[in-house]
């Protein structure tokens, strides 16, 4: 009986984690460059149940017993989001043109991180930064400095002011973006903090005055959330049924009459 209780409880916990993930996706539906997470739910190994026959040395198989499920991992989906025009010179959008996903390089506390959120700004010292203040890097790993926000960026990532090139955006490309881990503030990192290779001009297109929207599908997220809630509710009822059975076993079946 207790095994069934644990199985239902594991289903509740898995549904709760999925609901939290979907809630976070919906909360970031308007965040530029945000990549929606999706969960991988796996089942624990099944157990083979056997019955000992009275007076016999052999056992007979009853069948298998499921031992519950768990969320193995949560990974982002790197599907290209739609772009929206903002007409701000500091806003940049990446459009993938090759097999793989391109990212802007930024510096976070001395470490190189990657982002699809091209909603940039220029700080008081003239450094091009993300909304959270992380400097955007060029192909040499240096911070990009501009005189004002009136600079121009062509489709290859070349930054110019008054007709002169001041920097080339450090845009990288990976064929396996699923191996990247989220690092907060819309940033990603490699598992071993190794730097990704720089992309070729034919791998991407930069659009100035545009930003990439979140790729969260609100309708699908709402449907998945309702399903996760119903699954949680069904497992909760199973736990309540086990609780009533255990209560009866302890307080009624196990009662000793004086």
UniProtKB/TrEMBL annotation:
Domain Flagellar basal body rod protein N-terminal: 7-35
Location relative to the cell: Bacterial flagellum basal body
SUPFAM superfamilies given in the database record: Flagellar hook protein flgE
Protein name: Flagellar hook-basal body complex protein FlhO
InterPro entries per UniProt: Flag_bb_rod_N, Flagellar_FlgE/F/G, Flg_bb/hook_C_dom, FlgE/F/G-like, LlgE_F_G-like_D1
Superkingdom of this protein's organism: Bacteria
Main location: other
Flagellar basal-body/hook protein C-terminal domain location: 208-251
Originating species: Siminovitchia terrae
Transmembrane segment boundaries: none
Keywords tagged on the record: Bacterial flagellum, Cell projection, Cilium, Flagellum
GO process terms (BP): bacterial-type flagellum-dependent swarming motility
Family (UniProt): Belongs to the flagella basal body rod proteins family.
Domain Flagellar hook protein FlgE/F/G-like D1: 99-160
Gene Ontology cellular-component annotations: bacterial-type flagellum basal body
């Amino acid at each position: 009986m207790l095994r069934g209780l644990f199985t239902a409880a594991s289903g509740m916990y898995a549904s709760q984690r999925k609901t939290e993930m979907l809630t976070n996706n919906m909360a970031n539906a308007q965040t530029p460059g945000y990549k929606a997470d999706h969960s991988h739910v796996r089942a624990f190994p099944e157990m083979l149940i056997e019955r000992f026959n009275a007076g016999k040395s052999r056992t007979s198989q009853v069948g298998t017993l499921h031992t519950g499920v768990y969320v193995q991992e949560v990974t982002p989906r790197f599907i290209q989001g739609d772009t929206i025009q903002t007409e701000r010179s500091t806003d940049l959008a990446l459009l993938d043109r090759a097999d793989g996903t391109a990212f802007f390089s930024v510096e976070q506390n001395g470490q190189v991180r990657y982002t699809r959120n091209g909603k940039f700004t220029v700080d008081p010292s003239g450094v091009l930064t993300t909304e959270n203040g992380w400097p955007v890097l060029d192909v040499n790993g240096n911070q990009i400095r501009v005189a004002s926000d009136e600079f121009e960026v062509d489709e290859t990532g070349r930054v110019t002011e008054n007709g002169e090139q001041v920097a080339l955006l450090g845009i990288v490309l990976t064929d396996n973006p699923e191996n990247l881990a989220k690092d907060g503030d819309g940033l990603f990192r490699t598992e071993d903090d190794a730097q990704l290779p720089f992309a070729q001009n034919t791998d991407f297109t930069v659009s100035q005055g545009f930003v990439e929207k979140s790729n969260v599908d609100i309708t699908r997220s709402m449907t998945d959330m309702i399903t996760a809630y119903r699954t949680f509710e069904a497992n909760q009822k199973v736990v309540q049924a086990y609780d009533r059975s255990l209560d009866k076993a302890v307080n009624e079946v196990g009662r000793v009459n004086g």
